[in-house]
């Protein structure tokens, strides 16, 4: 919206009004933001909440005043005589005020439609051109036009002014003095409103000279208006804010766009600074050139102070929260103090902050942590004696110290450093718990330390002191628990283990880890050796420390140091080797301690602890702990010695027992073999005798069957001849023929003789097999047909292979290779075949009874294999072959197999899985002795549950005469 001033220029009040609204809106939004922060901090910051609520109420009052002023500006518009239109880019009328001029083409009632359509064509086209020009240039356009009116006043002036959102204000008037006077009257009313407003309105030239300020400037800043108008704005604005204001006006001048409000400080006449927020815009002439700047500003000092107070409270609250978190969440004392000094730097704007703890023994403050611009803790301030320098004085006096002028503070020694680094303030506070000083906290800052900051430091000092005391108590308790745990572990290990090396290794490692030293070692004096010497039993060291375990020269040097004192039961305790001569320095030790170990049994040893990273005080509780450890080690050494002696005695007894057991086992085996051999010998003699006795009558029968067959044939031929020549026979003969069934006898008698011949042949073969099995007629090693021995054994077992009720026939598959005669003990080898085949038959019959027949496994030596799949009937497969100078005989069955545990013991004497009375457990053991010891071969068993079993015999083809 625009009005005309006394000079005939248009004043853009729409440019002034929206920034005021936006500023109020921004203030309202900011108040909402502050309100949200206040809700979050309402427990800790109740006063800040009340101040924010008061500020929000004040802002709302300002908004109500602005709405009132907007209504007043609208009233001014109502008294203007101009015909007023607000149109869009197409010329459609959005708003209309008729004014006080006569215009026949514009209806006096509500005006709607398009402005161009309300005018003659020529005038409408001129308006269309002006609208286009205003939209393109965003500058004011004016022109005059003529209309025929009854009153004769047909000259009109149209002024078109751009608005945001592609809208345009159109003002139409008569160019007459009466209208100008009316405008002057309206301008006077507008000025009256402005001058009585609560906000300051000002105008600046392009050079930054105040051309106008509203009278209330005096109320806000104390200067008279005459003292301000004609002066540059620069002396009134804070030097830090002058560039902000200059840049603001430059952007308005360059872009001609409305800018966001800016905040800056204005100097009151009394010298104080007041915060103000301002919106400004440019005033342009008819050609679009900027004439000056106009703006409105309002005081925001109270809000800024409230924001600053709230930020201060929030900063201190965050500081306290971080300190509380450090005290409650830190896992160790060092980390807790580090987090506290970090909080000082972050929230209290410290350049750097440090914490010292008091070493009561030496009455020295030791620097623990440093945060900020300096983070190192090694330097001139690492150790501060109590009573010296500013830190030592704070600890001695037990009082805080604050200065905001380090250049004039006598306690600040290095003022050149402070000036160079821009240090302004120093604050230090003693850390006291129950009248006991535990340390000092201090900080340097590059700005003044406020009272609230110093109060926060006081709070932190109290909390940190309690935290340090608590952590120190926790550390002491933890160290005590660690020492007790170490002793308990050593005691338990001594009770649980008698391994001296293990106990020493554990003790050395535990002591080094607990003491946090570079090296720990244990020496033992070997006095029973031909030449008594010291032996380093075990050594634990840090990775940066060279191992002396194999460095004989260094070891001898260290032994030279500890030997005499250890033998005299003396303790070596050196905190700083610089005071103890050159010997330890040559070993690169900086601190050293050694404790002797003397046992009841007379053994002597020593514990050696050393550091190579500076002096290290050996504490009394550490010495006490190490003494307790040496006592435990002395006990362990005595027990280990007794244990060693008892173990040697036990080992000697055990060796003798094993020898006796081996002799007994060998005696049992020999006895069993003798019994078995005697049994087989007796059985062989019996078999041979039976075979001989059977052989004679069988030979008699077998030799006469052929003659009986011839005689029978002759007699039958004679009977046939009688029948042919004496026919018919007499009744008595014919009756006898029918009675004896002569035809049947003639046909069956030859068959009977053939059966008798076959039986005699079978008996002869059995007798031969018995003779072959017994081999009584053979002595020592002789070439033997292995296949003949296997077949003889199978013939003797033929009855067990046949089908019986509940047991199907066992099928035997012979897979013989081309074997020449093999040098061996024939009778013994036949005995092996008998044992293996008998076991296979027993396993198959057991598998049939349990329904657990499986598939034979493949021979592990890779020479041969059997069927891959389970067979439907019990089966034994025998295979022979020659491979690499060895005869290999395999006997496999598809029985239930055996477990690994059984397989490992199958060749052990007296081991059997058969029921009592069915097996002696000697068959496979004797077979093993025959194959391995008598023939220098091998016998292996390959089996798994459900996979059958396989025995492989490997005999050298060429053997020595007798083993």
SSE inventory with pairings:
Elements: E1 2-4, E2 10-12, H1 13-40, H2 46-79, E3 83-87, E4 93-97, H3 121-137, E5 141-146, E6 155-163, E7 167-173, H4 177-195, E8 200-204, E9 210-213, H5 217-221, H6 225-228, H7 242-255, E10 262-267, E11 273-284, E12 290-299, H8 301-329, H9 333-347, E13 350-359, E14 364-372, E15 383-385, H10 389-397, E16 401-403, H11 415-421, E17 425-433, E18 436-445, H12 451-496, H13 500-515, E19 519-526, E20 533-541, H14 552-567, E21 572-574, H15 583-586, E22 591-598, E23 604-611, H16 620-725, H17 731-740, H18 742-774, E24 782-784, H19 786-796, H20 798-801, E25 811-815, E26 822-824, H21 826-850, E27 875-883, E28 886-893, H22 900-905, H23 923-934, E29 938-943, E30 949-956
Parallel strand pairs: 25-27
Antiparallel strand pairs: 1-2, 3-4, 3-7, 5-6, 6-7, 8-9, 8-12, 10-11, 11-12, 13-14, 13-18, 14-15, 16-17, 17-18, 19-20, 19-23, 21-22, 22-23, 24-26, 27-28, 28-30, 29-30
Helix pairs in contact: 1-2, 2-4, 2-8, 8-9, 8-12, 9-12, 12-13, 12-16, 13-16, 16-18, 17-18, 18-19, 19-21, 21-23
Description:
The chain is α+β, with helices and mostly antiparallel strands and 963 residues long. A hairpin with a 4-residue loop joins strand 13 (350-359) and strand 14. Helix 21 (826-850) runs antiparallel to helix 23 (923-934). The protein has 23 helices and 30 strands. The chain starts with a strand and ends in a 7-residue tail after the last strand. The chain is elongated. The strands form 7 sheets. It has a 6-stranded antiparallel sheet. A 5-stranded antiparallel sheet has the order 4-3-7-6-5, with helices on one face.
